[in-house]
Amino acid sequence: MSNSLPKLSNHVPKETPIRFYFLHWRFDCEKDELWNCETHSATKLEPQVARLLTIFLTQQGQVISREKLNDTLWPNTIVEANSLYQLLTKLRKELKDNARSPNYIKTVPKKGYLFLPEISSDSQRSTFTPNYDNQCEKANLPDLVAPLHTHLKNKLLKHCWTLLFTTGACFSAIAFFSTTPAQVSPPSYERHDITYDLGVEFNIAAHQDHDLLAYVEKFNTLEITDKSGKKRFKKTFDTRIAHPTWHPYEEKLAFWQYKKDACILHIGNSRAEILHSSDPIPCHFITPPSWKSANELVLTITEKHGKKAYLYRHKHNQLIKLPLPKEPEESYIGAVRAWEGKIYYLIVDAKFHSRLVSLDGKVHMAWAFPVWLFNFDPAQQSIISNDGSAHHNLIGKYRNGQTYPVFATTQGIFTSLSVDNSGDVYTAAESWQVNIRDEYNLPIFSSSSIDYLPVTNKLGETVFMSRRTGYCEIYLHSGNEVKQLSFHKGHEYVDFLTWDPMLSKILANRDRFLVLYDRADVLTNFHSQHQKPLKQFGWRTNHTVWSTDGMSVNTFDLDGHLLSKTNFESDFIIYHTEDKSWIVIKDGTLYRATSLINFEEQKQVLAKLPQEALNVIKNPRLKNGELFWQSAWSKTDLIWKISLNAPYKVTNIKKEPLIWHYDIAPDGALLVAKMESVESDIKLIKPQTNLTK
């Protein structure tokens, strides 16, 4: 038996697609798609997970060593020891396999791994067992069986009987699915780069009918072009603008402008002339508006306590809050104009599952991962969105549940999405470089991360977070070496890192969990017991930690036992371990108090803060008796400083766009973390069926 592995290609010629069949699974290694015959569902595997499965399927019956797997998956590359383990864990999770009593991947001690099921491929179908064929026919594999019409009717009738729905409701559901094709043949796509001048272009919007594109260039210029990229008109503003959206029929577009601590909605024409501007609307961030009618738009506005949806009637300058069908712990993401010109709302629940709903609460589509980038494809009558992989590839989904790949990016991340009536997808793919530098301004770590959070201690050691393609990694820079402490796929950012008073442990978060590290590894993690995402956390003593979601403050011992819970609402809070006091911002004033329970009686006024220092507060630091924090004003980033000893003077020490984060060196020097190289280009992802038209 040989352990040699073939050189596997990531791309398979379209004329000879390779598909493998085992138990109740079908794997298409051209599309990296795993189909479950029992649940009639498809999963788009991450590229490396798909490559690992392909190795097992092409080497079935052979024990494959760790060395062979590492050499094939990461040729000529030094990888972390747990990288293969991470891939195996993901693949086992997709197959619902148990490492201790495996049905698929068996660990052979000191030798490697063995794939257990019998396998067949397309070229072997004539010799494949009849039992498997019968099983797949019953499971209704999409390209091997007749339409799902009868199956869906029976399944829905059974479901209606189980849930005691009315007969009328059952027949309505059957009628809906009977008009939906059981299996649709989605298009294949090709990418085209639309040529623009060098610069940063993003927030792309394509008109559904007319030969018009709109996008934002260099943050404050609205560009109007045709769909080949030929420039027509532009308008430059004094502050940042974002998210142009064309009217579905008319040559009008709506877009946002950040102005101080508010946002203004502008409506313009195809010549970039402003026809209407709203009153300033208080906001932290905004997302693309959705046209409901000629005079009405649905606006999604991020406020202090999360995103809210509003109906805006621009002729009357009237703003009405919409009653979204969601629970308090769920998050509203945004709205989209889709089927029959109606507006639908995207909700993500506490388990990071997504659903597209109408205001009556009816679910029209669901995903098992958080969707954050989405739009409607009129040609396919589908929703195009990010997928659940670390790379956030683009996928399409029909109302019958069928998914299909649209496009994958090998560098950067898709940040905006627009589709016209022909099914042409326009998107902006952004990439950037962040250099983490030492006190001599020399790079110690280079990353294409979408977030970066450094915290330096008095010994000169820096712990930092780098988030690339969906993975949250914690690193320690000490003694001219960079060491990785964790590797974790999470749906939310690591919001904060902090050293304990003795400089022996590090506190961070993963989603709503608190995580403790030492200089080598993860020590423990536990749930923060907050209903909302964490806003801040830190150390009380060497043996206790605290956290807040802006509504309550919890304290824990290092084993995760809840010691206290105090209802306390604040915009900003941090604990000063040296003088054992809380530093709090409430109602525009900075206070100090030794207790939160008796805060009103004990509070000491330190300073009244300027309005610019209060908008979108984040990233506090306590260093050498001084408090630092970050805010935003007209979407420009500012860093502030105040001494905690009299006189309490507030000073703005930095003001510029795109400050990712910052750090304070042991000598008090300000180190700013910026995206040093930003590239963002508009790409056309075109259905191949359109190329011959």
What does it look like?
The strands form 14 sheets. A 5-stranded antiparallel β-sheet has the order 4-3-2-1-7, with no helix packed on it. Strands 8, 31, 32, 33 and 56 form a 5-stranded antiparallel β-sheet that branches. 11% of the residues lie in helices and 45% in strands. It folds into 4 domains: 19-145, Orthogonal Bundle (Arc Repressor Mutant, subunit A); 148-181; 189-431 and 679-690, 7 Propeller (Methylamine Dehydrogenase, Chain H); 439-673, Methylamine Dehydrogenase, Chain H (7 Propeller), CATH 2.130.10. Mean pLDDT is 81; it is low at 1-17 and 124-180. α1 (47-58) crosses α3 (83-95) and α5 runs antiparallel to α6. By secondary structure, the chain is mostly beta strands. It contains 7 helices and 56 strands. The radius of gyration is 27 Å and the shape is globular.
Quick synopsis:
With 693 residues, this protein is mainly beta. It has 4 domains: 19-145, Arc Repressor Mutant, subunit A; 148-181; 189-431 and 679-690, YVTN repeat-like/Quinoprotein amine dehydrogenase (Methylamine Dehydrogenase, Chain H); 439-673, YVTN repeat-like/Quinoprotein amine dehydrogenase (Methylamine Dehydrogenase, Chain H), CATH 2.130.10.10.
